[in-house]
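Example record for the data management plan.
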Amino acid sequence: MENRRIDNTTYQEVCGTIKRTASRDLSHLVEVGLLERHGEKKGTYYTLRSEGHG
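Corresponding structural encoding:
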């Protein structure tokens, strides 16, 4: 898969959720190894982890 990325705001729009829920969901997906976090604060975005990780 190409380097597709998502940020908190886009996740909120796609999933119809609020910021707190989006942050919790994205953090959980990082914890279980599905997403990789990049950047900090407002510049944070997430990508699918490559198959070699986890």
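Summary line stored alongside the record: Residues 5-48 form one domain.
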